[in-house]
Amino acid sequence: MVESRGHSEFGKSELGNLVIVRHGESVWNQENRFTGWKDVALSEKGRIEAQKGGKALRERHFEFDLVYTSVLKRAIHTMDIVLEEIDQVWLPISKEWRLNERHYGNLQGLDKSETAALHGEDQVKIWRRSYDVGPPLMPTSDPRHPGQDPRYKKVPREVLPSGESLKDTVARFLPLWTERIAVDLQAGLKVLIVAHGNSLRALIQHLEGLTPAEIMEVNMPTGIPLAYKLDKNMKVLGKNFIGDPEDVKKAIESVAAQGKAKSK
User: Fold this and answer.
1) What is the mean pLDDT of residues 227-244?
2) Which of 21, 109, 133, 189 is the most buried (most CB within 10 A)?
3) Which range of residues forms the domain containing residue 177?
């Protein structure tokens, strides 16, 4: 699992051909809210995290051929900062709705700790991290629903979510992986993906063959790059967080604690 591998699993001279980065802390991460498809900005801490992640990649001399990101600005702005730090702003970019965060339905905007106090930490963990249990659905008539958002006007309305489990997020993401990203990697291209906690967990589960129980316990820290070395068959040969191991450990613990009720 991601948590147990802050150390290098391949030689220092070998750089991964796939690097994934979760966006830096957003203002709703900072407020401990369910964010989902809500298009919120990075916090100041998030911008610093993105800069730090980009600097770590620059110090290891990572170079890429293309970039994938979501259509949500916290990921796009993180990508912009990382590319500036590594001096590769000229790279071709694909902005893909299939890389959006998991849609949290009617939980979107609610405070996670308050929700945990009301419904219990176990229920919130199920909503946040279970594989196949989705949140309460958002009505399609809700102004917040993606069907009301012009950025999705070219997406068939029937595939736009009203709420998603991780299983749903995996199903939404996999066509992009199979038809585009994996093809690029198999062609020998080096790919950077800047996305979200759950869309990246969908990728991690697929790459590493994790069970639903195992993926429930995976926490992807904000702003810290994770490099994979993949062969032509997309088998994982090694992976490595690019950053200080203690920083990685603290960041993962912070993400894991978000769904807990605050002590009185």
Assistant:
1) 94
2) 21
3) 2-257
Q: Which of 23, 77, 103, 196 is catalytic?
A: 23
Of the listed 85, 101, 103, 196, which one is catalytic? 101
CA distances from 35 to 100, 105, 120, 134, 220 (A): 11, 10, 19, 15, 15
Q: Give the pLDDT confidence of 123-169 residue by residue, as tens digits.
A: 887 887 679 999 989 999 999 999 999 999 999 999 999 999 999 99
Domain count, the chain: 1
Active site residue 101: yes
Would you say residue 197 has pLDDT above 70? yes
pTM equals 0.90
Q: What is the CATH number of the domain that holds 97?
A: 3.40.50.1240
Do the domain assignments include residue 89? Answer: yes
Smallest Cα–Cα separation from 43: which of 73, 71, 83? 73
- Please give the structure tokens belonging to residue 80: 């912009």
Sheet holding 66-69, edge to edge: 93-95, 66-69, 191-195, 18-22, 226-230, 236-241
83 near 91, Cβ under 8 Å?
A: yes
